[in-house]
């Protein structure tokens, strides 16, 4: 039996549906169905009871699915250990990344990584929403926050300053911003996740924290749009230093309130289990860590951090 077939069987057991299991793995339903049939034929039992409306575990399935799960974990670990010993960097990486960071920063880094490791293939999922590892075809995710679920495995890439910024064209039209209270006279550009609009901005100076409730006429669930609006002079925004590093260095955006520091964030690489950390993912983690460090040091040299 192939490990890939066993993985499909486990997904079918999870979703109680061949179609949904296939969709989660980005496969045709017929492909998933054929894999299930191969495993059942090899075992000599039916793992599922099928009707026109539902699919549920058979008595044999109740017995064997936990053993199949243990077998897959063991075989996956053996494969990874073998590749580690041989120094082989290959396989598919299914990565989720935030919209702005993914499109405008990480994409170039991934191209460089795949040139260095040509046996690696990539499936990239761009979204600011927290990925559901059990329902979407993703193995690892870059996120601007540590994992909230204690069952998840996370690796902290770096601390990331956040920056209050605006374009020169915007600043030429409106009153200067000398302290956080001046922001009341300006248009905020907001990030929105689900029904929450992040319009309360927090700053710190000499250990003292200040919160400002902003007013603004634009909000979006896509952080890339916040950056684009800001570059085009539509208002002021608080952004990750990584997301706007190129815009800061080119002068398209200007850092504001140099003595006041917005609440920082962190970049994490998250996955549901350590067993998914392949040699290729370890190398990718190191690659992204090095690139982040290089960008942040470049901003420091330019006195932008």
Could you explain how this protein is built, in words?
The longest helix has 28 residues, at 59-86. The chain has a five-stranded mixed sheet with strand order 4-3-5-16-6. A three-stranded antiparallel sheet has the order 13-7-14. Strands 9-8-12 form a three-stranded mixed sheet. By secondary structure, it is an alpha+beta fold. A hairpin with a 2-residue loop joins strand 10 and strand 11 (208-213). The protein contains nine helices and 16 strands. The chain has helices spanning 3-15, 18-24, 29-43, 59-86, 99-116, 168-171, 223-231, 245-250, 279-301; strands at residues 48-50, 55-57, 91-97, 120-126, 140-143, 153-160, 162-166, 189-193, 196-197, 200-205, 208-213, 218-220, 237-240, 254-255, 261-262, 265-271. The chain has three domains: 3-85, Winged helix-like DNA-binding domain superfamily/Winged helix DNA-binding domain (Arc Repressor Mutant, subunit A), CATH 1.10.10; 89-160 and 266-301, D-Maltodextrin-Binding Protein, domain 2 (3-Layer(aba) Sandwich); 162-263, D-Maltodextrin-Binding Protein, domain 2 (3-Layer(aba) Sandwich), CATH 3.40.190.290.
Topology:
Layout: H1 3-15, H2 18-24, H3 29-43, E1 48-50, E2 55-57, H4 59-86, E3 91-97, H5 99-116, E4 120-126, E5 140-143, E6 153-160, E7 162-166, H6 168-171, E8 189-193, E9 196-197, E10 200-205, E11 208-213, E12 218-220, H7 223-231, E13 237-240, H8 245-250, E14 254-255, E15 261-262, E16 265-271, H9 279-301
Parallel strand pairs: 3-4, 3-5, 8-12
Antiparallel strand pairs: 1-2, 5-16, 6-16, 7-13, 7-14, 8-9, 10-11, 10-15
Helix pairs in contact: 1-2, 1-3, 1-4, 2-3, 5-7, 5-9
């Amino acid at each position: 039996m192939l490990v890939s077939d066993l993985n499909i069987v486990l997904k079918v057991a999870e979703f109680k549906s061949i179609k949904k299991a296939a969709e989660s793995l980005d496969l045709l339903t017929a492909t998933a169905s054929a894999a299930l049939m191969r495993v059942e034929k090899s075992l000599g039992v039916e793992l599922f009871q099928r009707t026109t409306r539902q699919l549920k575990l058979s008595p044999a399935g109740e017995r064997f699915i936990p053993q199949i799960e243990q077998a897959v974990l063991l075989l996956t670990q053996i494969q990874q250990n073998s590749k580690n010993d041989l120094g082989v960097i290959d396989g598919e990486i299914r990565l989720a990344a935030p919209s702005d960071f993914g499109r405008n920063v990480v994409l170039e880094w991934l191209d460089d990584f795949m040139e260095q490791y040509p046996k690696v293939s990539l499936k990239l999922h761009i979204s600011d929403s927290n990925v559901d590892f059990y329902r979407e075809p993703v193995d690892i995710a870059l996120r601007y926050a540590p994992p909230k679920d204690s069952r998840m495995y996370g690796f902290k890439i770096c601390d990331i300053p956040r920056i209050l910024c605006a374009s020169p064209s915007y600043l030429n039209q409106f009153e200067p911003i000398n302290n956080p209270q001046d922001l009341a006279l300006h248009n905020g550009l907001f990030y929105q996740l689900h029904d929450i609009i992040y319009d309360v901005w927090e700053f710190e100076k000499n250990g003292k924290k200040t919160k400002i409730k902003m007013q603004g006429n634009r909000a979006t669930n896509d952080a890339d749009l916040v950056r684009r609006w800001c570059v085009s002079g539509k208002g002021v925004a608080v952004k990750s230093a990584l997301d706007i590093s190129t815009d800061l260095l080119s002068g398209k955006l200007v850092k504001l309130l140099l003595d006041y520091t917005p609440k920082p964030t962190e970049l994490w690489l998250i996955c549901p289990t350590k067993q998914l950390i392949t040699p290729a993912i370890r190398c990718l983690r190191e690659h992204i860590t090095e690139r982040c460090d290089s960008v942040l040091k470049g901003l420091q040299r330019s006195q932008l951090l």
